[in-house]
Amino acid sequence: MLTRGDDYPIHQTPEPIAFAGSDRNFYDRYFFNAYAPDGSVFAAIAFGVYPALNVADAHIAVVKDGKESCLHASRILGMERMDTRVGPIRIEVLEPLQRLRVVVEPTNCIAADLTFEGRAFPVEEPRFVKRNGPRLFMDYTRLTQNTHVSGWVEVDGVRSDASGWLGTRDRSWGIRPVGAPDSQPTPGGGIAGFFWQWTPINFADRSVYFHNNADPDGTPWNTRAVILPDGAGPHGGHHTDTATMATDLIPGTRHAKGGVLTIPMDQGAATVTLKPKSTFLMRGIGYGGEWRHGALKGELAVAREDLDCENFDRADMSNLHIQAISEATLSVPGQPDQVGVGVFEQLILGPYRPLGL
Questions:
Q1: Closest CA relative to residue 82, chosen from 11, 178, 179
Q2: What b/e readout covers 140-166, taking b as 16+ CB neighbours within 10 angstroms?
Q3: CB under 8 Å, gap of 24 or more: what pairs does 333-341 form?
Q4: What are the pLDDT digits (tens) for 4-24?
Q5: Maximum distance among all alpha carbons in the chain?
Q6: CA nearest 272: which of 330, 323, 327?
C-alpha cells in the first residue's frame, strides 16, 4: 500500500512506509510542553501513531489554578502516517528540527495555537533498549529540544497569551508498550520495577537536560546529562553519563518534593536544585487511563476530561506518572547562579531501594 510518505526518502525497510516491521508495539510520537516563566499556566501535547495497531491519537492538557483541562482524540490511522491530524488537533512541521506548530481547533471549550522554536540543535539521547526476561520491553530513539514558545491557549473562554513562554519538545519512535495489554502473560517476562526521571530545564542562556532509567537496585540502564548553550549545533554542549540526582520524596508517596542534580565538569561539579511548584498528571495526555496511547476508540472519538491536579490520590496507579513544574537554580563553579524553570518528570513502579521503596 503506497501512502504520501513513500514520496519522501525516509524508508527504513524494503517495504512501503505504511509498514513498520513486525512488532505490534511500534510507535512514533511527538510530545510538547509549554509554560509561563512563572509556571502559572502549563500546557502539554502528545501526538502518536501506532502503525501495527492502525491507530493515531492526540491529546492536549492545560494546567491552571490546580485544574487540568484535557482534550483527547483518537482515530483509525488508515495506514497513512503523513496525516498529522486527529480530530481537532494537528501538528505542523514548519522547519524540521527547529520550528513546529500545534493547532487545536475550538472543541469542548479548549483551543490552542502554539509554535515551538528550538533554542539549539536537538539532543539525541542514548538508544533505550530494555528486555524483561525473554521479552523486548523497550527499544526506541528520542530527541529532546528546549524551545521558545509563542501563540496562545484557551480554556472555557479564557485565553492565555503564550508570548515569552518556554517549553520542551521531544520526538521518539520505536517500541514501547502501547494499546491494550497482551492477553497471555510471558513467563519470566514481567516487569520487576521501573524508575524514570527526566528534567529538561530552561535557563536564560542555556538548557540543562537529565534523564535516568534505573533498575530496582539503583543501577542506571540509560542515563545522560547535558548542559547546552543556546545556538549550539549537533556536537555542542557538555555531555556526561555520570550525573546523579539526589531525590527527597514527599513522605508516603512516590513523588519528589525536591531534588539536587550533580553534573561533573572539568572545573568542578555543577548542581541544579529543583523545587516543584505544581503538578501535571501525565494521564491527561494519554500516559495511562482510559485514553491510553494506542487504545482503539473507533473511527473517530473526541472527549474532554477535567482533573484535579492539586487534591488527588498520589497512591493511585493512574497518578504515579507526573511532571512537576519546577523552579530550578543552576550553580556552576566560577559563574553566577541562574534561576530557571522546567519540569521534573517522575515515574516509579515497583521497588526502588535507593529511595527505600
A1: 11
A2: bebebbbbbbbbebbbeeeebebeebb
A3: 333/265, 333/267, 333/268, 333/269, 333/270, 334/267, 338/203, 338/204, 338/205, 339/203, 340/201, 340/202, 340/203, 340/204, 340/208, 341/35, 341/37, 341/38, 341/39, 341/166, 341/201, 341/202
A4: 988 888 888 888 998 988 899
A5: 59
A6: 330
- Interval 22-68: pLDDT, tens: 899 999 999 999 999 999 999 999 999 999 999 999 999 999 999 99
CA distances from 47 to 30, 55, 111, 353 (A): 5, 11, 16, 34
Closest C-alpha among 65, 81, 71 to residue 44: 71
Q: How confident is the model over 145-163, as a mean pLDDT?
A: 98
Q: Tell me the C-alpha distance between 93 and 114, whole Å.
A: 12
DSSP codes of every residue in 109-164:
TEEEEEEEEESSSPEEPPPEEEEETTEEEEEEEEEEEEEEEEEEEEETTEEEE-TT
- Whole-prediction pTM: 0.96
* Domain boundaries of the chain, sorted by first residue: 27-150+160-167+192-311+319-355
CA proximity to 342, closest of 330, 356, 355, 354: 330
Nearest to 240 by CA among 221, 256, 223, 260: 223
* Residue 329 to residues 129, 287, 289, 314, Cα–Cα distance (Å): 32, 29, 34, 26
Q: Which grid cell sits at 260?
A: 539536587
**From the centroid of its chain, how far is CA 234?**
21
Mind listing the pLDDT tens digit for each residue in 116-131? Answer: 999 999 999 999 999 9
Residues 41/158, Cβ–Cβ less than 8 Å: no
Backbone angles phi, psi at 18, to 5 degrees: -60, -20
Listed in sequence order, the residues at least 6 apart from 251 whose beta carbon sits closer than 8 Å to its beta carbon are none
Is the model's pLDDT at 347 over the cut of 90? yes
| DSSP summary character for residue 257 | E
pLDDT of residue 113: 98
Strand, coil or helix: what is 246? strand
